[in-house]
Amino acid sequence: MQWLVNKAQGLSKALNVLAGIAITFIMFLTVLDVILRSFRRPITGTYELAAFSGAIVIGFAVPLTTFLKGHVLVDFFVMRFPLAIRKTINVLTRLLGIGLFSLLGWNLILLGMDLYRTGEVSLTLQLPFYPVAFGVGFSCFVQCLVLIAQIFQVMGDSYE
Amino acid sequence: MSEVTIGIMGLATVLVLFMTGIELAFAMALVGFIGFSYIVSFKAGLNLLAKDFFDVFSSYGFTVIPLFVLMGQIAFNAGIAKRLYEAAYRFIGHIPGGLAMATVAGATVFKAICGSSPATAATFASVAVPEMDRYGYAKKLSTGIVATVGTLGILIPPSVTLIVFGIITEQSIGKLFLAGIVPGLMIAFFFICIIYAWCRLNPELGPKGERSTWKQRLVSLPEVLWVVAVFLLVIGGLMYGFFTPTEAGSVGTFAVLLLSVVKRDIDLKGYIKSVVESLRTACMVLMLIAGSQVLGHFLARTKIPMLAADWIMGLPLSPDVIMIIISIVYLVGGSFIDDLAFMVLATPIFYPVIIKLGYDPLWFGMIIAITVMVGVVIPPVAINVFVVKAITKQPLSVIYSGVYPFLLSLVFCALLLFLFPQIATFLPGMLMK
After folding, report:
1. Which of A71, B40, B75, B175 is a Cys-bridge partner for B44, taking CB atoms 3.0 to 4.6 Å apart?
2. pLDDT 10s digits, A1-33
3. Chain A contacts of B250, Cβ < 8 Å?
4. Which residues of chain A lie closer than 8 angstroms to B341, CB-CB?
5. 3-state secondary structure of A86
6. How many of the other CB atoms lie within 10 Å of CB of B177?
7. A61-109: pLDDT as tens digits
């Protein structure tokens, strides 16, 4: 099942690259806006563009952060148990994660469809909200793939 | 079953789940979602889940977190800390315990652009400890101080802990930053006093280093000056309302990046490394916030925060005793779970109590920040101590024996804050209306 682990890692890294581009974009855009604002030429819609890019920054960084075990967790209780119990607990927590993110991903897609149907857009630039919801929803499914890959890592003793 | 009982069961389930090794953010979101679904409806629970995550991720206000984290990572990868240490060493390295004092001084200035506590502990463990070894410093002093100085970033702006506290309690991040400056500098000063006193009592702990010439001292100064300039730009901009916190984060990050590129301290590879590392930290923090939002909405529905506030207010205890108990709850909870995670979890519950008791929210932020500072260096989850152990290969017992004396200054500062809240509140009161 190494191919699945590689696939999950590859997809997470690809999303992380987009997140990295988005944070760099926010930085340059905001700095440019601050500079131009002092010449009374602010960039229209900076606020909205930064907020939308912010969703990409965090939403798209979730799978790789999970893959690299970057989220806060408490493992010193679990580490006291024998390997077999640890493996069972790890599989169960991954399954809970899959349950959470599949529901979240699916409902973000539904939210996106709702936003698309109602034609909800941002105030200044009239940017539609739905692509952001779809993007983060997609990232949640990649997150599920990462969690599935971690189950295989647990089985193959390469998770801890 | 009453809603309060469901709420209490929900909180208990969160704590049990925390012990299973599941990501804390996932646990909070899961319990919040299931609890809300149980009380209202499954459909409402699903809506809450999607809406809370979407709102947190796409909020302009939250973009401040990845930006300030990125600023710190660039500063870290550009090797700024090393040169700040060298500058401080030039001035005070020749006095007893001077190299340890230089670590405090260098780290205090570095904290003005890098909020990460473990990153600072890691940098100074690899830079300052070998230097202190060269002059025969006792391991407990050298490792103890590098593990502890990292905590200063929790108070000294731009602190991620204070940003998160500001977001949760809807307080001005600019005011919180200003409130953290005096207590942060005070603690740094106490650290130096402790090193001085310790080395006076036992001169073998920190022998004198080499005395630098005035030429060497002056040459080392520009590094300090530009870091201070960036800090003043960020804090000054926030204070006078030129920038929003997000803009301050962008301008600060850009300034650090520009100066590091001009000085050839960082290349594209270094920048990419900084971005990747900062994304991981920022994502971790924002996932905690998103998870706590879902849990918070569930708890609000059960009215637990309100009832907890009324119950605590009804206790026959003075407000100060209640406040001390709350601080101990934060310390114990943070020690067993994670300090930032516990703050995110507990603040929505305790904050209404603090307000009802009439305490200043900024002051409360400082007390919580000091509690978190203690939490990152005491067992069982002492991230800074683990980082220093990994780099210096010293046993935990040696590092802890060096950390404990410095905890005194944190406790002393918390005590002073209790007695004189103005230490935290006068600067924001004077400079920001």
Report:
1. B40
2. 788 999 999 999 999 999 999 999 999 999 999
3. 26-27, 29-31, 34
4. 72
5. helix
6. 26
7. 999 999 999 998 888 788 889 999 999 999 999 999 999 999 999 999 9
